Amino acid sequence: MEFEQLEPDLQEWIRDAVRRGLQAQAIVDTLLSAGYPQRVSDAVDQYFLGRQGESRAAPPLRCSLSRWQASTLSTSDREVQILLQLRKPRVALFGNLLSERECDELIALSRPRIKPSRVVNRDSGSRDIHPQRTSSGAYFRCGATSLIQRIERRISDLLSVPVSRGEGLQVLNYLPGAEYKPHYDYFDPDSPGFEKVLKKGGQRFATLIIYLNDVQAGGSTTFPEVGLDILPRKGHGLFFSYCDAAGNLDELTLHGGSPVVAGEKWIATKWLRLGDYTG
Ligand SMILES: O=C(O)CCC(=O)C(=O)O
Ligand SMILES: [Fe+2]
What we know:
Radius of gyration: 19 Å
Protein name: 2OG-Fe(II) oxygenase
Order of helices and strands: HHHEEEHEEEEHEEHEEEEEEEE
Distance between the termini: 35 Å
Pfam family, one: 2OG-FeII_Oxy_3
CATH architecture of the largest domain: Sandwich
Cofactor: L-ascorbate
Oligomer: single chain
CATH topology of the largest domain: Jelly Rolls
Keywords: Dioxygenase, Iron, Metal-binding, Oxidoreductase, Vitamin C
InterPro entries: Oxoglu/Fe-dep_dioxygenase_dom, P4HA-like, Pro_4_hyd_alph, Pro_4_hyd_alph_FE2OG_OXY
Number of helices: 6
Number of strands: 17
Strand content: 25-35%
Shape: globular
Bound molecules: 2-oxoglutaric acid, fe (ii) ion
């Protein structure tokens, strides 16, 4: 199907989506989930090709994600609730992001693979074990298992960010006393050690932390600059973004995992990049 054969309203919607920085794949996915037939995909491809050879490799995303207006958001397979939103820094708390069973499965998948967590050294770029971060973790490449594929699809639907912009899922386990001291998830562009990580997909612009269990005591995610503490609840997701449309990084997103006091804590973290992640 040719782009020009589409209804004028639909053509305009696609042009506008492109202006907003959406990539072809995301546009096609949205149209298909709205019930348009598969052949609409050819029309979108043709439109992108017509734009001086631009391909499905997208322009960088606009950094800031807008505020959600509805109280629930539909994804391909789950209705996610919005429990809290903060404007500055940009934070949202989601309920019902993962089922209890998915949380348990992800923990079971990770348990045999966890190793002490590392931190990227801002000067040398090496990944070091560091007292700043005393959790253990397991890393899963994108699409590593069908469960992970399903979760990645859901996150992509929820945030309208292509799966390709996500780093692999990082599952973390904190035992009593373990913590992640306050830090930024974005990479300081002036630190030589971050040059290499920035080459694989550009700057991180947002983080989604998924809580995989309830913690008996301690273990909140804390934002010390704004006095915000989010308590872990199984299946909830904590989203925050730190890059505005002009590329300014938001220092108010300083955050950490406070020490677990009793029980243990399991989370899965998805970091999102401005470009396609090639890690
Ligand atoms: O443990 C937490 O709640 C925070 C984790 C975190 O900051 C991260 O994974 O980047
Ligand atoms: Fe973090």
